[in-house]
Amino acid sequence: MAQRLDGKAVAASIKEDLALRVDRLKRKGVEPGLGTILVGDDVGSRKYVAGKHRDCAEVGIQSIGIELPGDAGEADIIAAVERLNADPKCTGYIVQLPLPKGVDEQRVIEHVDPRKDADGMHPYNLGELVLHIDGRLSTPLPCTPRGVIALLGHYGIDLNGKDICVVGRGITIGRTIGLMLTARNVNATVTLCHTGTRDVAEHLRRADVVVAAAGQAGFVKPGDIKQGAVLVDVGVSRVYDEQEQRWRVKGDIDKGCYEIASAYTPNPGGVGPMTRAMLLANVVETAERAAGLGEGAE
After folding, report:
1. Rounded-to-10 torsion of CA 43, 94, 90, 108
2. Is position 96 annotated as part of the catalytic site?
């Protein structure tokens, strides 16, 4: 039987630890705060941001929410960014994407103070990730790749020397996880596959670990993986279930692969909760650095 890598359970454990660290910070007179900038009334974005604030309440992080109308211009959004940059109560924040048409998202993100980059996706922080081959950084890390590596580590899955096939070259994980996996502290070998890759299945069948982030439901089939592979399902698609007459969330990995794998992440319930936990970790760690506290310090 393949081992189910329960992201919900591991994320809950991480949150327990973060709550203790937040309490320690508060005893030192420092209160971590997560800021969010939400533009418009997109239902999915609003739900996502609300979930972040619920997570904050669980670990004792204060929430700082800024909401702007859907017709807010680029200057208005950048002004909100600068407001959070200057707010000492905000130790980390996110600009919820997508932004309205006509707004240069990259230009907005570039105005974020890299030290408060809760997503770990600011160009400066990505540059730090490129430069530190040893994997030892004091800047926020991209949440989803960090969550994947933490989840595998929790279950004792050693990635040293392993062949890892990543499917999908999106910035959220595809282009960033390779940097983290090939750092010396992880030491894996990574193949990145995308729409221009010839015979993706051939690369998948050689891999010890598959990280599927293509956003195509059931893209990885049982015939595409080798016996005993570890499967990490990051892709999210909404697929209409004719039998149940409702929309369902499905991952990139066909569930038939589980019988062949040695371990797998469920979707939902695998990588998603870990991503959310890592965002909280970035906020707490930023507060600890600002206070001169390292993890475990008193």
Report:
1. -110
2. yes
